[in-house]
Design a protein that fits this description.
Elements: E1 9-10, H1 14-20, E2 29-30, E3 37-41, E4 47-50, E5 56-59, E6 70-73, E7 84-89, E8 92-97, E9 103-106, E10 122-129, E11 138-143, E12 149-150, E13 153-154, E14 160-165, E15 168-178, E16 182-192, E17 197-202, E18 207-213, E19 218-229, E20 232-237, E21 244-246, E22 250-264, E23 275-286, E24 292-295, E25 301-307, E26 314-322, E27 333-339, E28 341-347, E29 353-359, E30 364-371, E31 376-377, E32 381-383, E33 399-400, E34 404-407, E35 420-423, E36 427-434, E37 437-445, E38 449-454, E39 460-469, E40 480-489, E41 496-497, E42 501-508, E43 521-529, E44 536-544, E45 552-554, E46 562-567, E47 575-584, E48 589-599, E49 607-609, E50 613-619, E51 625-627, E52 633-642, E53 647-656, E54 673-676, E55 682-685, E56 690-699, H2 701-705, E57 712-722, E58 728-741, E59 743-750, E60 753-754, E61 759-769, E62 776-778, E63 783-790, E64 797-803, E65 809-815, E66 820-826, E67 835-836, E68 840-844
Parallel strand pairs: 1-3, 10-17, 16-21, 18-24, 23-28, 25-31, 25-32, 51-58, 60-68
Antiparallel strand pairs: 2-37, 3-38, 4-5, 5-6, 7-8, 7-20, 8-9, 10-14, 11-12, 11-15, 13-14, 15-16, 18-21, 19-20, 19-22, 22-23, 25-28, 26-27, 26-29, 29-30, 30-35, 33-34, 33-41, 34-38, 36-37, 36-39, 39-40, 40-48, 42-43, 43-46, 44-45, 44-47, 47-48, 49-58, 50-52, 52-56, 53-54, 53-57, 55-56, 57-58, ...
Length: about 850
Amino acid sequence: MASYRLLAVASLTALVTTLSGAASAAPPTVDRAAAKASVTTVRGPQQAVRLATGERLELMRADTRSVSPFRVLPAGNSVRPGRFAYGAAGGKLRVQPTGHRAQAVRVRAGARGSATVTAGAYPVTLTIASPTAVAFKLLYVWDRQTWTSYSVKDEEFTPNGSVQLPDGNYFAVALYSQSGGGSYLLTRTFQVAGAGATVRFDESTAKETRIAVDDPTATRYTSAVWISVPGGLAGFAGGGAEKTYVTPFSVPGASLRLHELLVKRGTSEYVPGPYRYDLYRSFDGTVPATPVANVTRAGLAVTTTAVRGQARATNGTLQTVPYTAGDWTGVYLPSPVAVPGTLTEYVTPSQSFGRLLNYRPTAQDMTLTERVLPAGLSAGETIGGAPFAPRRAPGSDSYRDITRMWIYEYPALSDAAGNLGLDRDAKVSINLSSGGEPYISASGLSPYQSVSATVPSVSTVYQLNHTVTRVASWSRLSTEVRSEWRFLSAGVRYSDPLPLVDIGFTTTGLDTQNTAPLAPMRINATATSRRPGAATTLTGLEYSTDDGATWATLPVSGSADRASVELTVPSTAAFVSLRATAADDSGDTLRRTVIRAFAGPASQADETVGATRVSNVVVNGGRPVVLTPSGVAEFTATFTATDPAGIAAGDVYLRRGPSRGYLPRGSSAGPDSVLVSGAATVCTPTSTTTATCQATFRVDPRLSLGRNNLAGAWQVAVRATSNDGRSFTDRRAAATFPLLRQTTLTTTATPTSVTAGKTISVQGTLSQANWERMPYSGYPGQAVTLQFKKAGGSTYANVKSVTVDQVGEVTVKVTASVSGYWRYVFAGSPTAAAVTSGSVYVKVT
């Protein structure tokens, strides 16, 4: 048989590295001796751009709407991005983080283009009248009759811009933010008639716009406010409770749109609240003088959304975007959710929302079904039910033409309800052969990559093996998902999906951590075929409690396309794996295996399989992590991993309190908080058997934690896996470290000049960082030590140990004897850092 194999080309684009979230990405491995294939990036966002803030702009893939939505992923391990302005016109989307230049991406074809400047155009100056300097801004101009946009030249670091315009009527928008003063969305209508003009945007005419709800416990978590015109938009999104001000206008065809997420006061990025308001309002044509939309909770749609964990408690985000017919839909907005946890949602009724669920917070993406709810109570929804396994995604099939075959199975980690998902940090291997002739042998692929190869045009039987593996400290399920196909295929003149058989799994009876009960539960499997008109049969179903080392058969009829089997999982089983086989009436077959499909009744304690070991677990270089009242603190967690076969990957996260993933069934305890790195843990080999692994954490105590009681001892959970995939270790408390509130201590003395033998009063105030309400608050009931150093001396001596009062203050009276320096010292506590005050000099005569 002649070889149809081509020279292998394995190229990873920069986009793959960007999307993975890792600091670096190893290229895939293509066996050049056995495979002649091409590797390409085919999935993920249409475009991804790193912003000046380190955040990532992702233009989402187009659907049936006119233009795709987009999202901005936060830097580090934050849940929400900072405030940014955005605008779309002339087929270009521009995003400008506050205080930075804008960056742009091209958008989907079909967006209205910019007008070409003609000889009959006149110079128009756009200027912003503001009491404070305007350095960074976005300026847009549209023709009010055609809604064609005109490109504006921005004069950076000034309030001005310029544009060439022909005679006509125009609608202009200016966007900028003032540090601590809110964001401004100013508008003007004007006319050009035979001469140039100056158009002035007046900040003083802008009014605050928002959605107000009659719930005093709710506060705005994030928002998007934008002006929409046919073929374009301009607005703000991101940040927290920042206010947005807009100039009221009346322009047919233009709308002011608001999308706000509200949460319970006290909610933080890693301590989610119990409810979420998802509110949308559009002022079409006319924006009133007071552009505030008032809504009542009684008039909203209400539902509950339960998010199941993957045998481990972690963080997640729920992202939504309102869909509007025929124009830009705006930007996805995130809010934190507990995993596992149940969230009550109050939603604008009769409004369509696109939805995404992210774990950790952007490791595993789940695309949820579009949702429209009526007013009143609606049935709840469960997301993240196990097993996580492949699901067919329309438009994402592996396919072929006459002599070329493309292999790409995108949603390999979808939940049992059919929500399509993948893990960005997972690795994919693909092997395609026929009769011993290899066509593809590739490993180390990202979930966004496909592999293609030249194949015979004649009808041929192929064997295709597709395997997804992942190492994640936040998930212990679906560690390996393997699909083994045998199918008959011939060349076609047009692109056609490969005739593959599919098997889907669902379960009933699992708990919030996807753990099986001691009582009987049910496993369901269904076979389908991508070959039009084919009849399928589920031919076998098995389970394993030892990660696939041995299998037990479950009863199936062998003549139907599905089976529903009751199983009482052994009480000693920590995890249950599933394997099923199916065939269609053309002879195509599939065997699908999900290792650790769900958790068993036994406690999922620390695990070590094989020779993999971890040691030298260190956070912040061995020093306490001390957090100020606000602002981002960055620190690392490192560990050493060893295995005779070498280390393939590692992961680490930080937790405060017990973890559901390690407690017996029925326990209600859970971690107080979990901190995860915003990027994949990087493991660097130091020898053939050893690697040093590092994760970087960025924590803003007010935004990330938001609760003072989260200070104290935290635990470090680590996981490492060997290169050969046969060994791993997973430890929930490999080390502990102190995460402390910063303290301040002051010392004053009166008088500062005194006669020997007289009394001196030495006052001190001990304060600690307050992550909830104010920068610092008094630290009551703590012991501090008064120290003294003689003038000219080199050391301080302890004078007296005292306890500060209920507001953190203390006064000690001493008898003056010699001149010298006085100070207080606080030795620290389990939740607050040690501190020494500055000294005060007292002259004694």
